[in-house]
Structures
1.
Amino acid sequence: MTNPTNVQRSRRGGSGEVPLQTRANTIVKEADHATPLELSDITIRYGGGKGGAEAVSVVEGFDLTLHAGEMHCVAGRSGSGKTSILTVGAGLTLPTSGRVFWEGDSLESMGDDEIADRRRALIGYVDQGGALIDGMSALENVLLPAVPDGEVDQRRDMAKDLLDLVGLGRRMRHRPAQLSGGERQRVAIARALILGTRVLVVDEPTASLDRASANRIISILKDTTSDGIAVLVASHDHELVRLSDSLTELI
Amino acid sequence: MNAVQRFIRSKVLLLTAAILIAAMCLSVLVQSQSQAALNRTVDENSRGLYDVLVQAKAPSGALLQPEIANGTGGISFEQLDSIRKLSGTSVAAPISLVSRVTQNLESPRLDAMDYLGYNAGLAGTATADQAAGATAPDKWPAAESVLSDETKKYRLTASAVSSDGVSEQTLFKSTAEGSLGKAKLVEEKAAGGNSIRIAAPEGETGIKFPAPAGGSEHNLFNLSVSLPLAPEVTESVVAVDPAAERALLGSSGDFLAPLEKAPPADARDAGAIGRYFEGLFTNGIGLDQLEEGPDFLGVKLKYWAPLMTQYQQAKRTGQLTADSQAIPLIVRSGTSLDLKYNVKIEEIDDAGKVVKDVGTVSRSLDKDYLPFVSKDPFVLSWPGSTDHSSLLGSTGNFNQGLYTPATWSTDFAAAPKYTDGEAAANGAVEKTAVPGEWVTINRLPEKSANGTPVDQTQREPVDERSYRENLATGEQVAAPLAMVYGTFDPAAVAEAAGDVNKLPLGGYDPTPFTLVKDAEGKDVPATELEPSLSATGLASQSAGAITDYYGLAAARGYTDNADVIDAIRVRAKAPGSWKEAQPEVEELANEIRAMGLEATIVAGSAREDASIFVPGYSKDDAGKESALGTVQQSWVRQNAAEAVTGSLSGTNITLLFLTLCGAALLTGASTVSYIRKRRSEAGTLRAMGWTQRRIRSWVLEEFGVGAVLLAVAGIVLSLLSWSLATALVCVAVLVLYAGAALFAAQQLRHRDVIDQEPQHDERLIPVDSPLTFANRQLGTNKFNTLSLAVAVGVFGAAVGGLIALLIDIPRAAGASALSGLAAASVALPSILLALAGVVVGLVLTLVTGRFELNAKRQYLGILEAMGWNPDMLRQVRLFENALVGTVALPLGVLGALGIGLLLAPYAALWAGVAGLVAVLCWIPIATKVVQ
């Protein structure tokens, strides 16, 4: 069944709890070019195709404005639509209705190639579990986003720095199969940051990790916000929820 | 979940079992349908009207030239009787070439309508007695003429042209001039009354060609201008035993029935027969009897008139002696000889200048022509003329036919001699015709019909390339007279007799030559060479007449027991198809060989085309010889039945083997796919405490369900087809499946990582483009890559095999009549098998392609998420497929070449090209399909 209710709370600039806000009404707003990511009245439904199955509404009327340097957490139980919101935000899937703005530009007006180009420049997406490409070392995985622009050699040092930053400076020649889950997650974050990303979209970064590894990931994410990078993260990790600037809890 | 449920759930195993059952069904298709159809077709079509050809001399080899009777004889009548007495002989039908007979065609003439109207004195008793078909006097139309009252001067140019279908030759051209005009009726008083005569107009000179042409004359209906003699026409005469020949040909030999009633040798005295017919006229003969033909010893001789006129002519010229015999003949109706007679008519003034072109009239020998018989083959009609002669009805006018006895000769026209050339890539036989002598034709007779000398200057003799052999006996036999008993239609006989008329010495027809390349070796539109009066050495037509062996003795001066039989066609008593009759036919042939004769088994043979280069075919005025080019002629391949059966059976077995190979590969791929799907499941079961033994049983139980299905299908199919080959295939498939089961069980015991990690980064190509990324992925998943490459290679090889087969079937159909029929009988199953191979290749690519489908989907998703645009993702897929295709290319091309070499060696190159194209086509298609 569809879960129609989104509850949003905001806690900008402070560490204390802020009251929960009822979900915003659907308002078509003027785009804010300073806002890296904005989701407006997003509804996501699955099914209801030719097979005659009833459509399942996962998200309805979801709004989000993500500012530079802000970490927003989407929390909720499994199947509540966290990953769906992230993939819509990253432009990987289209919402059933509603609009997605990247730095004020609606994705509706973009073609596939433009979306891909803009995503490469703007969004760093980290899949659940930190999916890496087998057969390529950690360093090569990090450099993969630079391939389309032919900047592999130019970004090699930056990739090494990023791997150092995430604590994998000594494991950059290891293959995914030779890395632990947390290490793969960190490689994936490094890979997401290689092109100077302004929005980091991270799906369940601490799932299946021990506390120490999870804290390390959370720390890295928090550090990126200090560089002005907006982070949209889906998680039900309490620590991550606690440290995020704002929270949407999907019921 | 029990084993059956697990088996059904496992689509891979279900697919594998289905494919293997399909492979078994295909084997049944091949064995019980295709092979049976092939055997049946070959058997039914490789036993003609006779089984053994007996000759005195040994044939040249396995490929027999299609000679008609050659006149060399060599077999005696005692030997013929001995063969007939053999217990295995059903029919023994002898055949020999009697003679080449040269005859002058009746003098051609040009009739210009100059009808004078009814006149009782000229119409005579025909109308008075109302002869059959006569028109009553008051119904005769008014006088009519194409000539003018005043004479006009005309120039007539007569010419004869002959063509062999490739080149045309003018045999002569002769011109005569003179004045012609409308005739008048002149009534004059004579003793006892008035006489009426037809008189030429005043000043008419008439037109006369050189002798023996007789000038021009007026009659009641026409002005007739005698034209130059047409060229001589030569016909061959063969001898058969009419009774045996009818037994051989069946109802299609009924035309020989009159010959069976011909008088015995001692009752064929030409003088006595001539006197008998003279007596008929002396004593009076009714018109009905004339039309039907007077009775001669129980046969109505419709064509008695030619015999009579030739008898009278021979008697007049002293050719008729006491030894002269009348030779009974069944003559061919129609001719394929191309001979055209033309007359150009021009009105001229006194200075010889053309005033008016009246027109050109022409006539050819055609289907109405009868050798030894034809009356007026070249009567031409002045433009605008109407023939009113039928107003008289039938006045007892009979077919005068030839007026000069024909010249019988033992200058036989034999088939050319050949030298073997290289065999062509497709197995076609290459030969070269060995030129024979040049002989002179187109000459005029020394004397005309009335004994006057002939002006020889009006005709240029023509040199003709001949393959004649002079078998003159040295004895000058008395001039025989042709006594025509009936006619035969060569086309009808050829159709009814089938291959008997095309097999060596089978009948009366030489096999035609078809020109396919000119002298320079360039392809030309296929043209069948016509018999002509120029360069006729290679192409001659059906025998002009058939006689019996008494006729042969009379014409050639042999006694009736001489060794004059060219060949004997023997049909064995054994009934049934070729295979059924083969042992008895071979026994019969051995018995004949024991008599010192050559016995060639023609049952099981078939016709096939031989390419023959013909040099020195014609020469120009300077005497320089030119080649004709390359012709094709149907020869006879001995043991073609076994060769065709062996060849096509080989094709079937090869296809079956390849199909099984494809099934084996597919089973392997399916098993790998099964192992991958079940590995995690096996791990879970292990974690739950299952022992290795139990896991092994768990796997084998699933395979066991498929094995039971396969076994049941195999038993049913084997019983249905009742073929050992099918049973063996079913067992092989079952063994294959069992092997796959054991392999799967073995693999699931251990958790091994199949994908291998690159060990040395420095040796790897850095990933900096879609191409290098694709390369790295394929290098990482070597097993998957190689599996897919092998699958694509198999697909390419299968396409190559299909193309080889598609090329081979029409070639086989064209190679010989038998192979054509046989190929047609197996074409559909063979193509189905080859298509099945292609389908197996395709399914194999799909199965192996799925090995890495999930991994591929995952990394394409990752790349998309990090901003690789759709074009770059497409490039990755394209480069991956291109790299797989690069590995598959040699497999596909070499596989296709190999299959091509097995199926049709000459088509192997095309098969290789097809394999190459198939693999190259797979690359973009797979790129498009895998999104």
2.
Amino acid sequence: MGVSWRCCDATACRAAGGAALRQRLEAEMGADRVKPVGCLRLCGMGPLAAADYADGSTELVGGVAGERRLDLAHPFFILQRSVVLERCGLVNPNSIEDAIAQGAYAVLDRCRQLAPQAVIEQVERSGLRGRGGAGYPTGRKWQLVAAQASPTRAVVCNADEGDPGAFMDRAVLEGDPHRLLEGMAIAAHAVGAAEAFIYVRAEYALAIERLRTAIGAAEARGVLAGLPIQLRIGAGAYVCGEETALLHSIEGGRGTPRPRPPYPAVSGLWGLPTLINNVETFAAVPAILREGGDWYAAMGTATSKGTKVFALSGAIPHTGLIEVEMGTSLRTIVEAMGQSPPGQVKAVQTGGPSGGCVPAALLDTPVDYESLQSLGSIMGSGGMVVIDGAMAMPELARYFMRFCVDESCGKCLPCRAGTVQLAQLLDRFVERRATAADLVQLEQLCGMVKATSLCGLGQSAPNPVLSTLRFFRAEYEAAIAGPIAAPIAAPIAP
Amino acid sequence: MTGAQLPVRLSINGLVVEAAAEATLLQAIRSAGLQVPTLCHLDGLTPVGACRLCLVVIEGHPKLEPACVTAVADGMVVHTHTPELDTYRRMAVELFFAEGNHVCAVCVANGACELQAVAVEVGMDHSRFPYQYPRREVDASHPLFSLDHHRCILCTRCVRVCDEIEAAHVWDVGYRGSSCSIIAGLDQPWGEVAACTNCGKCVDVCPTGALFRKEDGSGEKQPHPERAQQLVEARTEHHWHNQ
């Protein structure tokens, strides 16, 4: 009986009762045959455990009693292309030995033999773009930081993932933290940085615990070659995912953005040239340097290369974590992988409070930076929430606007006061007491907040409204109480 | 060391303007005798780009840029008043009036208020956005001055003048979003903050009637926003305005 089990020990499966499933398996098989791992992808069916048989076959089961046998030949699994997540679900995130046995830090060792410029060149060739949402070419950013005349530089990882419906970075942090550390150490070598920081939101308790363990183990074994990587825990402000606010927060100040330029690449942490990338961006780097930039660039579309991790959730049977090639259509993701019956989806929300809704009629849209942007949405960090007919669009827009009201730092007027007014205007549409003038004002104020806010939070706060106005305008118009509104009482029968 | 850089030439509203290479766009606009409204900006203090009133159109830039923090560049083509900018500025001033409790008739700063002046400048006579009537406090715990939060527009001039010029850092911003407020010390009554030197610079630079001398009645506040720049010049250039 050569079976060994991998038990998901990430947040979603823990919440679903993963500990009970693991204890059962350990009692049955013996503790040495059961290994805790990171996300096994199909979170909605959790807790999940995978059985690896001696003949090389694998089975996936879900449920506290392991009662659901899940089909690994389903498109949800076979259409995935694991690059960032290649070790997630296979490696024990608390064991540096296991990570090293599966290849961790081997690429870093090789990169150290290369000139920094050679490393940057591979990242440039890969076409990798920032996975935090803005999509700035990663190689160009590295080049910029490396080119600054400064005796030292800093590397910062943005792990302040906070969009509603986004849990891609959490999966990397919880499932394969050594991949992030390796990616950051490669970046530090490439740009000439002597110190590194990871800024994680405090809500990610398990991720913080795993990172602490991983950093401690990596330093003890000396695999980071003396690069100090420090952990900084956020204090609950979503806007600290904005890079200048994040830097202020690391410096110990109030988490508020400042106008750019100067960009952090020129003047960042304590005035040092600073490279800031998101978790998924750094986590893509070891594979790119191992296989070569051209290998990565062969995946994806003309302008959006490689793979992207998405957090699939909402009104859909298969919810969880997917990594697919850029350019995969929303229909493939939602209908084939997510197994949503045709005709049931109303829209797909991407990009969280900064994004928008792609209507069902446009599900054949390929997922890449430009296509989503042309539809008034954004790629964002990778949250993908499927909306069905039960959700009224003004209400969805109000949900995100209220989120922005709560998360505005209050520094600039349009975001601080404009989002409050926008949320109140949306109340009128949700409660079906709006006027035609409200609709005009809603659109005008959206335009003003978008054009005049200081940072990305305010500039993109109107996007969920503008995008639903674009594709679901009839729902807003129906909420306008006209002069010939329906009679309040039923007509008396003759 | 490099010497002084050559001045740059740029176009502002069709006017060719020469400006020092290290000048901000706002300095160039004002030195050309042109005008854009500002509230958070004050000569002598570090600009923060928060009120968004000085946003201008720069040809070739995808976004509007705040003149107070944007450096001039040779060949820049700038427009300070377009229909779009005029609309946004008026909306911004309406948002300012709607988010606080600004009642000019009973305000110490009536007639000497920068918010009021900007409202006149952009042609705002009423707010089309509903007034929020927030519940705010008045801090009268200081022996000489008071802070009426109802009239505060969060420009942070008081925070900056106290930190950068007086170096006492009595003021800061507390809380988030629409709940933001100026706080004294560790969010204490102002009168309890031992760091306060009673210098009154925060009162001098406050653009509205939020900070005022206790003896001032309606319309009696005499602000001195020019003092920030005068103090900076006195220190850096040893040029004293009272001599």
